Amino acid sequence: MTAKIIDGKAIAKKLRAEYHARVEVLRSRYNVTPALAVILVGDNPASQSYVRNKIAGCKEVGIRSELVELPASTTEEQLLDHIERLNNDVTVHGILVQLPLPAHIRVPSVIEKISVEKDVDGFHLYNMGGLVTGNTVFSPCTPYGVQKILEHENIRVEGQNVVVVGASNIVGKPTALMLMQQDATVVICHKKTRDLGHFTLLADILVVAAGVPNLIVPQIVKTGAVVIDVGFNRLPDGRIVGDVDFEGVKEKASYITPVPGGVGQMTVTMLLHNTILSAERAATATTSPFRRRA
Ligand code: NAD
Fold first, then answer.
1. Cα separation of 60 and 150, whole Å?
2. Is residue 293's pLDDT more than 50?
């Protein structure tokens, strides 16, 4: 069996065209331009590159972006003040603080400061908790991207055995919870899991987000499985690879995402989606989605 290679770039392009049209509706019907504020603290080159990518995505679909660049010496209090200002700015619909932050700033305090209604990354505790009950205000972007890929390929989730390798708060755990909401039978594996293959071999859908190149080899993949590789690793020779032995596993799976060109394309796309959704809610709601749900 040779897998269908899922073209994340093409899916992202199609979705972005739809989002562009939604922005046009917001402009013409409500005179609202969706806006995303991105806060970047310090000069980490990887973070700078991620932020550039997000801002370029905004431009592509017509979202206004506001970049708040702060020095690494910024205090936690100063950062919280910036968030407070953006929380109160009705022209801003999404707030994103690029992680990681300098060590002297406590990430949880920063994330909890962002208004739930503008938490387009979906990292606020309220949004995290909502994953358990199935009513987040915003779904976290990478897991949401995985879900959208499965939807786009018409891959049934209900009743399927899903194994998620990786249990981080931003990828593994939320992905598992979102797929469980769709009535999959879900197992989460992590670095302390004994005999990883024992579990992965059960997977109809295998989602891998460990950050370990070549962790998933064909011997531990079920024939016909759908393999979604979230991993993004830079090898010493500069090549970018995922966590899956792509060449080997594509001969055994039914669907597989490449790296690059798979899930990575979807993460920013879902951030754009969440920002537009926030602007739509602000333009049309009489009460906040947070208060309505609380
Ligand atoms: P993380 O380091 O926070 O978590 C990694 C998880 O993998 C942990 O739960 C750990 O226990 C597990 N793990 C590590 N080694 C393992 C092993 N040998 N066997 C089983 N489990 C193991 O990482 P993260 O932030 O969740 O990111 C995971 C990967 O996904 C990274 O490569 C990251 O670059 C990538 N990522 C990609 C996107 C994207 O948009 N494509 C977004 C976020 C993260």
1. 24
2. no
